[in-house]
Amino acid sequence: MVHPTVSDVTREILAELPAHRRETFELRLEQWFPDLHDAVTAVYPDPDGVAAGLVDIAARAYAARTEDLHRLDQRRLLEPDWFQQPDMFGYACYVDRYGQTLRGVGERLDHLTDLGVTYLHLMPLLKPRPGDNDGGYAVMDYRAVREDLGTNEDLRTLAETLRGRGISLVVDLVLNHVAREHEWAVKARAGDPKYRDYFLIYPDRTTPDSYERTLPEVFPDFAPGSFTFDDELGEWVWTTFNEWQWDLNWANPAVLQEFASTVLHLANLGVEVLRLDAIAFLWKRLGTNCQNQPEVHAVTQALRATARLAAPATLFKAEAIVGPRDLLPYLGQGRHTGRVSDIAYHNSLMVQVWSMLATGSTALARHALASLPPTPPSGTWVTYVRCHDDIGWAIDDGDAASLGLSGAGHRHFLADWYSGEFDGSWAEGLVFQYNPDTGDRRISGTAAALTGLGPSRLDPDGAFGRIFLSHAIIAGWGGIPVVWSGDELGSPGDPNWADEPARAEDNRWVHRPRVTDADRAGRFEQGSDAQRVFDGIARIAKVRAGLPMLHAEAPVDVQTESDDGLLVVRRRHPSGTLVGLYNVTDDHRPFPHAQLIELGIPAPTEVLSQHDLHVDDTGSVWLPPYAAWWIVDSPRR
């Protein structure tokens, strides 16, 4: 029976469907309507009306969904942990910098299949504003693909091709803001009261000044402040990121309904994972930094429940680059457990990997990572060495202080090290967004440039070890490891990144190199940097796929007591135990053989590099510089 609060519209849509389709939707409604109603009740004054409208949107999308996508939904529901399996291995790229167009990406998939990719994140591909558009994150039209990349039909075709290869398509959905040129903003400037209420518009500086007392600046160099005076409006508009990115008013339920429709439009094109961009910023509250507010999680739950009704194969990925204590709620805690995003970025792990490589010490990482609570059973991390963005040194002051360190001092050191300013550094990164008031400096650069395989090749031998080690750590953590485009080939970066005027002030483009057919062919050149890096990362993906201990549900157990140069991580699973031993130094480091037995591995075998575990007279095995060992119990004979 259909829930009594659904509208006549939904009833009419369902009445036109075949009996088995109608029954399926009604069963889903029974299961997920409580989540939907609870979520909108937490944030909107008319929860019944808002929920009914969202069910209408879901019913329309469900009725329009193709047969192959309905079948995908059923497969995903039968295997709800599909994205937590150890064979998940990701790749992220810009369409134009990898294949020029969507069709071009479809013609260049062998490279990804050879790498072991099962999860492909295509960076913003929806129609952006002309000119500067924050790398595509200033969206002008959510219903159209960027014209130079192709069409909606090209996106649908690519999604089908990827599914045929066992690869899930991931696409960005920018939630916090739209481009100033978006139809909603155009109508708001024209005075339409409906669309003015889609944004946060103020007649003078009184309210903006009150908010800005507690708001941090995201881009202090080229977009200071969080509000912009719009000449056409003659008023102030909330613009967290850039003056041409207008923040949306999520307290207006019409905005939620617009995005629910967009989510399902993309899902019906075959998108399997939606990266919810800038999700931490959605809800505004005076006297706070307007990030991580509890209403964000209610909004996400409402969107997710709506998607479950029409397209349950669709996953949500939270792009919440926040402190470690604020991160877990995006995967669900308390009343939102299992009801919000399915996956989230493990920014803290990425930062700690770079910190370990720079210091040759694991003490801070052991403390910080061991203190993180476990992910909920239904969620997991996206882990990564690098992404499209800069690296912000998110070192928690409390974590640093517990080891007698200064958080600010350590952040300063890391910025010095990775910009190459610290004596002895092998890194060639670029400083991004220096804030003289706080001393904050973020870093741009490819994985190769930050490990010693940059343009000057300051330490190529050590660089290869650091590259493989860092990818092994993130792949051995569980979740979904993702490789950023170009890093799989050891790209030192784009030397011509500043040639395009719209990008000349944004040095993040140095680590967004084009990957051409010639670059891909370069990995077949024996002894080349590209071949050596590619083969190493592909080896990690292949071994990982055969280790059930790396299923995301297996708990991560960081050993807090170890040699200062070693990170020791245990993962226990019904199939057995895996211990990851990682040497973050350029020296040989000992590890007690007996401790492997204590950790649950009576007959240890190293499976990643197939290293012979020779035990010396002291009872130790010695890890070579930058070694990454995955140790499991030898199979019984």
TrEMBL record:
Classification via CDD domains: AmyAc_Amylosucrase
Region forming the signal peptide: none
Coiled coil feature spans: none
Domain Glycosyl hydrolase family 13 catalytic: 92-532
InterPro entries: Amylosucrase, Amylosucrase_C, GH, GH13_cat_dom, Glyco_hydro_b, O16G_dom_2
SUPFAM superfamilies for the chain: (Trans)glycosidases
Full protein name: Alpha-amylase family protein
Upper taxonomic lineage: Bacteria, Bacillati, Actinomycetota, Actinomycetes, Mycobacteriales
